[in-house]
Amino acid sequence: MTAHLLALTVGPVQEFIAAARRTRDLWFGSYLLSEISKAAAKAVQDRGGVLIFPAPSNGTDLDPDSRLNVANVIVAELSDSDPAAVAKAAKEAARARWRSFADHVFSTEQAVIHADIWKDQADDVIEFYAAWVEHSPATYQADRARLMRLLAGRKRCRDFLPARGRSGIPKSSLDGMRESVLLPPKQWPERSRRRLRVQEGEQLDVVAMVKRTWAPATGNPRYPSVARVAADPWLRGVGAERLRPVLDACDALGNVLHDLDTSGEHGHPHYASFPFEGTAVFCSRHRDLQQEAELAETALASLTEALVPLTREYGEPNPYLAVLVADGDRMGQALSDLGSAKDHRAFSQALATFADKAREVVHQHHGVLVYAGGDDVLAFVPVDQCVACARGLYDSFGHALPAVGNTKSTLSVGIAVAHFMEPLEDLLEYGRAAEKHAKRPRPEDGAQEERNALAVHVIKRGGGPVAIRANWSAEPDQQLLTLATWIDARAVSGRVAYDLRKIASVYDTWPADTVQAAIQRDTLATMKGKQPGEESRMHEVERFIRTRVTGADSLRRLGDELLVARQIALAVGQAAGGGASREGSA
Amino acid sequence: MTTMLELTCRDPIVSRDGRPFGAGQGNRMRSAGWVLPSVVAGSLRSTVGKAAHRDFSVETAEELLQVEVAGVFPLAEGTLYLPAPQDCVLHPTRGPLRAAPQVIEDAGCDWPIAGLQPVGLSDDQAPEEFKPMEGPAWWPVDRYASWLTNGAFGFDGRFLRAPETEYRTHVQLDPDAGAAEDGNLFTTAALPLTHLRRHAARADAAHTERFAAITLAARVRSSSWCAEEAATLDTLHPLGGERRLVHWKATTEASVWGCPREVREALASASRVRMVLATPAVFGDGWKPAWLNESLVGTPPRANVTLKLVGVSLDRWRAVSGWSLAKLPNQPRGPKPVKRVVPAGGVYYFETIDGAASDLANRWLEPVSDDEQDCRDGFGLAVWGVR
């Protein structure tokens, strides 16, 4: 038999990854897709395929629930197996793995599921495309290019079965693509209603149901929500001692606040000092919490009481968090340049190493890693840590991956700072918009290179969005942290940014040769005039202004950076145990 | 009897996806990219029924369901616009390229059915990998005809972009206090359809250079009282959700819906043709029309030529459902079952087996869905070209 190169892609990506209302939906959807892809990869390997992508480094990497995150595109060399048969086996394995998750959920949640609708949907979820080309190692590069083009051609035939719809059934609230499998809530047993935390009127189809409720036989990993990430700086600032009464009140509420998993395989050990849902410390959310969990009106009284002295002393916890989306630059180009299967395997392994490191970095910065696979990262990080986390990821990527041509591998990172109450799909969109901005500068950014950049967007409720972007070489992380430190130390007022914008518009039409001196003088005068109190750093600030501000555009950009830095400063202040007297409200 | 309608939108139009929306169900609406055929059909039938002062009994409902509706498509400066076909790949430097079935050697794929070829660009068209750019969403029918007959082709300011969804956040008022109720915000999403942005217009150009004013064109075929009402329509009535108003007017301008001459001439001598969906299609076999057998051979509805499918270029399926206001024997009032549609722009490549391709010119903008009611609702309107 001749040798072949085989490529497979497993889906659907949208239903598994994008459609989500809770962070758990998102994380589990990614995990699910990875497990299904892993099963397909294992089937290829078991039938004599030598995997190129992913490139497992040992015998257990492809076992179910292993640490390896497998992307949904698989490439392998087949020396003498029939590619059509291998592809078929991989498809069966992917389907079987999905069914194992679905069947488990069905067996535990039968009481709330409409069995007929479930059966109609469960077998029609997995999408699968495969392509293969004859191959010899001498022509790897050309063969691989031909293979990927063929796979793209195969994917243009998006085959699907007709729907098996029913009248009178509402559609899934997450994406409206399939009917809901849930029986009307009135028919549910009491314990199911509490446990499932399905919002009133929320409908789930088979995929959404599996994402929301699947739990391993041993225990139930509760996944931190965006509220927990937003509350983290405040919780760190208050400290475990002072939080004792709150912790006790949360414990007393039993299962309502859903203890977070802090030690398991997918756990978050850095949340061990407050292993409860973030909504516990946001008093404005207590009414909704009480309604959703069907508690008595007074059930949360002791919790609210325990919080009163803390909020008086430390302020209300800041409700903003950072959504971090990162993507490797020119990865397509890098892959096309690889000359042999061996090089490609090394590249795959480097990506897997980066994914592992990314988890470490995000956890070090008290964040929640939703997804790290290939060169993509999606994480929720507390605002005081987000910029340092971005830098950590950027550096790890450069170290883990081989150079592309003669330049180091680089990562474009987008950060969106937004309110935890925003719908999850919006938070994701903000994050992706920031990442898109990091890839491609906008006209107002001035002269910047494409890619290899950090973009930070702040989307405040009741205010216009603020966006800044700079190439990593300009050390934007350092600049932001410096500004944040000054604002937190009250050496600079965060609100002076609005005055700077006004000054900038005055100087818009000034000739280039005279504007610099004048605008710097004006800026410094304003900043000195609006100083909150701490004067000893003024010479540092002055030096900063003289290097950064050369005209109206650069002043406007500085204003925007100050607005972003102010958000970071608020979180930094809370993490340091700052009291309610600190500048500004959220 | 056939009537053409021109719709002028007074409000942005709500054509939303199937997610539950309303009190106690969901407070976020998502819009589809364009108005679904079923939305137009439903609104038109309601309009005709009300104009005739009917009572919407089961008989009336069943008569109205027989009304055939096609559209809507943008109409700008007297030209009909059709959605961009999936076989157009926009190269950053080489411009629009035509994807076509490729013959492959020493290779294979896991096709759902034997006999298909992969669709893509040849090595001559694009030797190296590139990232396709996004092209304009709506093409004027005369330029579309060039594309379908492999004539000279390029984009210019007559091509239009997709509408941008407009979001509105609403509050619910407490009727006694007249103040907003706490926490009862909801968001609607709608498409403003009075203007569409022109392709590649400069940001500092004049308004008419950046935007084209549009109305929407629809075609109605009906009989008896429905036909009489449709022919004299000149009224305001909602289209789609949230009671957004549109002015419905019968016109006599039929020529925009006819098959362009150059397409008719090209089809006369063709043995290889393309079918492009102008509206989403509902097929009995999902991605594939049920009028093709297991050997991929068949005849499109009401046509006289036998075709064999050799390749397709489709986007992923979309879900269409809707809400039935009518109470019918086989469809109670309430959520309708989900249908999976092949999105508009999907391309099917054929060889003629028997009969003359010239017949297809008579099937221009006629429905090819499998179910008769889906055809009447406007799903699967197709245009034909050569390859």
Walk me through this protein's architecture:
The complex is a heterodimer of chains A (586) and B (387). Chain A has 586 residues and is an alpha+beta fold. Chain A has helices at residues 13-18, 23-46, 83-109, 115-122, 140-155, 190-196, 206-213, 226-252, 286-292, 301-314, 331-337, 341-364, 386-400, 424-439, 476-488, 496-506, 512-529, 538-548, 552-575, and strands at residues 4-11, 49-53, 73-78, 127-134, 320-328, 368-373, 376-381, 411-419, 453-459, 466-471. Chain A has a six-stranded mixed β-sheet with strand order 6-7-5-8-9-10. In chain A, strands 2-3-1-4 form a four-stranded antiparallel β-sheet, sandwiched between helices. In chain A, helix 12 packs antiparallel against helix 13 (386-400) and helix 17 runs antiparallel to helix 18. Chain A is globular. Chain A starts with a strand and ends in an 11-residue tail after the last helix. Residues 581-586 of chain A have low confidence and may be disordered. Chain B contains seven helices and 26 strands. In chain B, the strands form eight sheets. Chain B has a seven-stranded antiparallel β-sheet with strand order 9-3-2-14-1-16-15. A six-stranded antiparallel β-sheet of chain B has the order 18-19-24-17-26-25. A two-stranded antiparallel sheet of chain B has the order 4-5. Chain B has helices at 37-51, 58-65, 141-148, 207-210, 224-231, 261-268, 372-376; strands at residues 2-9, 68-76, 79-83, 88-91, 95-98, 100-101, 107-109, 119-120, 138-140, 166-170, 186-190, 195-197, 211-213, 215-221, 234-238, 245-251, 272-277, 297-298, 306-313, 318-320, 323-324, 334-335, 339-341, 347-354, 366-367, 381-386. The longest helix of chain B is centred in the N-terminal third of the chain and has 15 residues, at 37-51. In chain B, strand 18 and strand 19 form a beta hairpin. Chain B has 387 residues and is of the alpha+beta class. Chains A and B meet through helix 3, strand 4 and helix 5 of A and strand 7, strand 8, strand 19 and strand 22 of B. Strand 4 (127-134) of chain A pairs antiparallel with strand 7 of chain B, so a sheet runs across the interface.
